[in-house]
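Worked example (supplementary).
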Amino acid sequence: MSLSRREFIRNASVAGGALTIGFSLSGCSDSQLPKQNAADFQPDSYLRITPDGEVIVQIFKAEMGQGVLTGIVSVLAEELEVDPAGVRYEMAPPHPAFADPEMIMQVTGGSNSIRLYYDTLRKVGATTREMLITAAVQQTGTPASELYAENGRIKSRDGSVDLGYGELAATANTLSVPKDPRLKHPADFKVIGHQNDRLDARQKVDGSAMFGADAPVDNPLVAVVLRCPHAEGSCGGWDASEAKQLPGVEAVFQIDGGIAVVARNYWRARKAAEAVQTNWQIGDAPLQSSDQIDAAFAAALDGNEYEVVREDGEPPAAVGESLVVEYNAPFVAHATMEPQSATAQPTGDGGIEVWVGNQAPDVAQAYAAKGFGVDRGRAIIHNTFLGGGFGRRAAADNVYEVSQIVARMQRPVKLVWSREDDMRHDFYRPVMKARLTASVDGNGDVASYTHQIVAPSVTQSIMPHFLYAAMPAWVPHGVKSTIGNMQADTDNASIEGVADTAYRFNHFRVQYTNLPTVMPLGFWRSVGHSQNAFVIESFVDELAHAAGRDPVEFRRAHLPEGSRHRAVLDKVVAMANWDQPAPSRYLGVAVHESFYSVVAEVAELSMENGAPKLEKMYCAVDCGTAVNPDIVRAQMESGIIFGLTAALRGKITLKDGAVEQSNFHDYQMLRMSDVPEIEVAIVDSDAAPTGVGEPGTPPAAPALGNALFAATGKRQRDLPLQLT
Amino acid sequence: MSPETIEFTLNGQPARLEIEPDTPLLWVLRDELAMNGTKFGCGRGLCGACTVHLDGNPIRSCSMPISAIAGKAVTTIEGLSANGDHPLQRAWVAENAPQCGYCQSGQIMSAAALLANRPHPTDTDINAYMSGNICRCGTYPRIRKAIKRAAAEMAGDPVANWEPGRENRTGEVQS
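After joint prediction of all chains, the assembly is encoded as:
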């Protein structure tokens, strides 16, 4: 969407000297965030300036570690000419003004926040700046050409004018909004490209940062919920007569989704929950266990039920020997450090307010209203910091639970999920099986490449959860499920990273079979790219070796000339000294585009007594303009470690529809001692910003797998990778 | 299980409460005393998010019954420094270490115990001591740098001193 298609809309209501102006991507004039204080200058929903000169920015995306809070403030501050460190921020409520234009709802995901809002936020900052200058013209009579904005003040070149933004707020409130504010030239940027310090760091080192279970409510009860361990199973009865006798227990009752145990504190609730007798029933859905799923997926690869999602060129009339191999990826969990906890209490006027860190606060609002039994307008969501998101916190299952519990208890309640609850009731990355068939011609180029994918549809699995919030409340649930199923028949999340690859092959074909399992699925950092990059980047490596060519040279030859892919590849191999690695070091490379950014990574291994050891990861990223360069580096490090963790440890298995893992002893994480040095380079770019939170993840697993092949000669085709 | 009176020292102040003695320290801190800086991650001493100091030594408060705390001194993240300005906390900020932030109280408490025991830790020391603390955001490389920065500052190396507003992250050329 171009800026010219966007619209500033002036809301005619001027009350108490307050001007409210809607700045709306949709052009919808009722989408203005309500003004909180009549005296504030609030030129749009994103920010306001108080008469005291305080600049307050709405953080309308979820801060889950990716640094979006700092990014939003940085972009606004650049054009507004204020110090980002002096800006106050507030977590935005769910509101139509903040609906993501690509995702319709107020979702944080798809690494799109800065890419999508870069122009908007600059324009908001520039508009506000120009209105403050106009206000200064009116107050002082000094012509605008003599005035400039600097560090929260409007000054004149001759020094006669020096007014703080707060001193201009009242006058600015009376002005019309300039249609086409002048944006700064990038050469004049002082914040964008320079602001490295996170603005939320201090409260995250002194314990004061607030998460969902830290809400400031008075004397909350604590609830835990017992949930059916079998996906799509049911409760065949329960008995809490013993549990209710235990000290501190307030109530045990059934809710939609489980049995709630409410007590004076967490420990009493947990102890009582252990004393509840339950009779969980296994459901009758097919594919309840990992071995059944593997067998069915293998059969599907041999079957004829598939969709051809892409085919380029003609299959060659005669091909030489084909390489035919299979790749596998298991279910994986998000395992955010913060389990899915939330706090809620009744409001004085019959509504409910919920404190939760959520990636989709309007989904949370819909489920709070449903759980508490009120209209959505009576459900207040306080979006806190998220203790890790990675896609898990797009769902609002915890909000629905705590709201039902508060409806019954009619007093403040903290819902605490245990690690076991979190591990066993996630929305998992799907299992996937792929068959790759390819041949190389006499020139060592790929003659034909067919990529078959069998995977359940993420979209089909989770979309009904979102549609509940996206659709008017009166639509019956069955209708929503049906619509979700229909619209999600071709699941982009299953094919992304393959069907849209930048590689060019003479003949290229992608087949996809959607095979549902009983498992609830969700978006897992980089989604389909996370498995598909592993497959395609490992297999391209296989083809390079089959053709007797260097894996980097082979990739370059099949990537477009002048592409960003070639550029990051060239950069990373220079960093890693690809052509002349240190003695006894083994390198593996991968390059992958996701969320409009391109990332190349090299894994460097040593061998110690026959065992491979990961020594270092190199990373080159093209993410367009890097608004906060050190946060970009941190996100590459983060994405790489997330990808390596899944590549080396991540595997969730199912039996009778129940997840077999439970905590960090049987679902392990990389720890400090496992993590190598990571060197990140950001490719210079004047282009608009692209994704940062996720694109570091996809190349990590194949880079490591390819390095393991270099070191051991054994090709890694199954996740998690086998080091021995 | 009947409540008992438990007395201990919390961040230098006397604390006294009536509580069932099997209650883990973590839930006393969070549910009874509303001290929310210490986090719940696993409940089994596997992740380190709940790390506090007991008489100066790091413990996992999720797995320590309050009965074992009686008469002892507990330090939480809230008590590590008066103004959030312990050299480790400043080093964490200087290195842009936190991401989501959830595990960082535990990380910092572990690191504080490490430096108290080994003022000049090697990489091996850091890896060994800090491996009980999981971070899902992958801040480990920056935590490693931050510990070294704080160690250098505590040893009086002026180069490592952190100054607000100055970009001086290690290993990085500033524009």
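Two points are worth noting when inspecting this output. Residues 159-175 of chain B have pLDDT under 50 and may be disordered. Strands of chain B lie at 4-10, 13-19, 51-54, 57-60, 73-75.
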